[in-house]
Design goal:
- The complex is a heterotrimer of chains A (227), B (234) and C (36).
- Chain A is mainly alpha-helical.
- Helix content of chain A is 83%, strand content 0%.
- Chain A has one domain.
- Chain B has one domain.
- Chain B is built from 6 helices and no strands.
- Chain C has one domain.
- By secondary structure, chain C is mainly α.
- Chain C is built from 1 helix and no strands.
- Classes of the chains: A mainly alpha (227), B mainly alpha (234), C mainly alpha (36).
Chain lengths: 227, 234, 36
């Protein structure tokens, strides 16, 4: 049974990523957006007062968050066309597998955008990141899991409503607050060279958030797609 | 009893509770204005505290009720639970408007600034936004069962979320402390103030129950109208 | 006196609270009357 779940999940994720790979539209727009955000943050500061390091965490996380939202939107719009999602739901595969597959696909998409944005950020802001890359990636992963999971669940819901593209940001925004506060705090500390032990509290919060919401979303997914 | 009888009985009870609470509100205002001492450091403006705390209690309580009923709905699938949840959410938003306007006014007096990203204000703001989302979502779904299901999912997720919002902002703030919020009368409140506060909270609670009853009755009447239209009875 | 002369804030707060509560009561009344 569990192999069927993961099997389904990987199949769904692979399908989504293949489709995205053919057109690359969402990926391209995310990257353009990332460059735009980084540029705006850079040019908006008064360089005599605000150092690059001060504004760096905000710049990174605005970029990552909006990349995630673009990815999420694309993911379910894909299924909304021709009601492809109904086909998925009718097939004899565990529904949780479909959900996990969607999450994995979205995670992969956002991960690629983040991995490309990080070097761009380091370049534009003149902030070296190689020496702290593992911790930076770790924090990014924890926060991204949080909002991709909740975002995927909410997309599954709103795709069946009117004004779907509008509903997703409205509903998702409050759920982004705790992971982003945590991620920004930890990122700021990492870039300033502080030891990870200083962020034990924030890491625990992020971890608890991930566990709580992955569990809640897995349990609630059925309720969003039953007919 | 027919559905219509139930609705009418609820209406009667709702109006009794609501009008009674409104009368109680007048008594509260009188007590606040003339029979409650003025706080020594904040001045008369501190008296906004009574209506702010009461509306916060009503609003947050209303949202908690919606959250719990959402959980129950997913378990029991009784649409009445969803209807009460909807009524509670609407009333919660109304009290929330009072909470979020009186709060900053009091903040201006105590902190000198209209807004402050402290744990309580931030959590209540985002909870308010969540329930705006809840209401917008309900407006965007036509089928009653789907609407109940989707609303319940948001309701449950909100229950899980709020403690995290509070915790994260609280952790942020203990790193960046602000001047402590002045309490109503110092560490312990004089009895006269406490009585006024408790009475005010009580009146607001009755008002909440009255409004939710009325709002629920309204929903039942709307369903009746839809059912009668479907059966061709005018 | 000793305390600041800022009663206007409290008055504003209570007016807002009353206005919102009254407006909601009226809205309920009208919506219910519409359905009867």
């Amino acid at each position: 049974m569990s192999s069927s779940l993961w099997g389904t999940a990987f199949a769904v994720a692979a399908k989504d990523l293949k489709i995205e790979w053919r057109t690359k539209t969402a990926f391209a727009s995310s990257l353009v957006f990332a460059v735009l955000v980084l540029a705006i943050f850079y040019f908006s500061r008064d360089s005599t007062v605000v150092s690059e390091l001060d504004i760096a965490p905000a710049a990174i996380w605005v970029t990552f968050t909006f990349a995630a939202m673009l990815g999420l939107n694309r993911a379910f719009l894909l299924e909304q066309e021709n009601r492809a999602i109904d086909g998925l739901l009718l097939s004899p595969v565990p529904r949780t597998g479909i959900f996990v597959g969607k999450i994995l696909g979205n995670l992969a998409f956002v991960a690629v955008v983040e991995l490309v944005s990080l070097p761009l950020f380091s370049l534009f802001f003149n902030v070296p990141i190689l020496h702290v890359l593992p911790s930076l990636l770790g924090v990014a992963a924890m926060a991204t899991i949080a909002f991709v999971t909740v975002g995927t669940l909410l997309s599954a819901m709103v795709v069946r409503t009117r004004f779907a593209e509008l509903m997703l940001p409205i509903l998702l925004l409050p759920f982004l607050v705790p992971p982003i506060i945590g991620a920004v705090q930890i990122t700021a500390g990492i870039l300033a060279g502080r030891p990870m032990s200083e962020f034990a509290g924030w890491l625990k919060l992020l971890g608890a958030f991930d566990i709580a919401f992955v569990t809640a979303c897995l349990l609630l997914f059925e309720a969003t797609v039953e007919e | 009893m027919t559905k219509r009888d139930v609705a009418l009985q609820l209406l009667r009870r709702g109006w009794v509770l609501t009008l009674g609470a409104l009368a109680g509100l007048v008594i509260v205002y009188t007590r606040v204005a003339f029979f409650t001492p003025i706080e020594s450091t904040q001045g008369p403006a501190q008296k906004i505290f009574y209506v702010h705390v009461s509306s916060a209690w009503a609003s947050l309580g209303a949202f908690a009720v919606t959250g719990i009923l959402s959980l129950l709905y997913l378990w029991r699938r009784d649409r009445k639970l969803d209807t009460v949840a909807e009524a509670s959410a609407e009333v919660g938003l109304m009290f929330g408007v009072i909470m979020l306007t009186t709060g900053p006014i009091w903040g201006k007096v105590v902190w000198g600034t209209w807004w402050d990203w402290d744990a309580k204000l931030t959590s209540t703001l985002f909870l308010f936004l969540l329930f705006i989302g809840y209401t917008v979502l309900r407006g965007a779904v036509a089928d009653l069962d789907t609407r109940a299901r989707f609303s319940a999912v948001i309701g449950v997720l909100s229950l899980v979320l709020v403690p995290f919002i509070f915790l994260s902002v609280h952790m942020f703030r203990t790193l960046h402390p602000k001047p402590p919020v002045l309490r109503a009368g110092g560490p312990s409140m004089p009895a006269a103030m406490l009585i006024t506060l408790l009475f005010s909270v009580f009146v607001f609670s009755v008002l909440y129950v009255g409004f939710v009853t009325l709002r629920y009755a309204l929903a039942v009447l709307k369903e009746l109208r839809a059912e009668e239209a479907a059966h061709g009875i005018s | 006196m000793g305390y600041p002369d800022n009663a206007v804030y409290a008055v504003a707060g209570y007016i807002i609270a009353s206005a919102v509560i009254l407006a909601y009561s009226v809205s309920l009344f009208l919506r219910i009357r519409n359905e009867r």
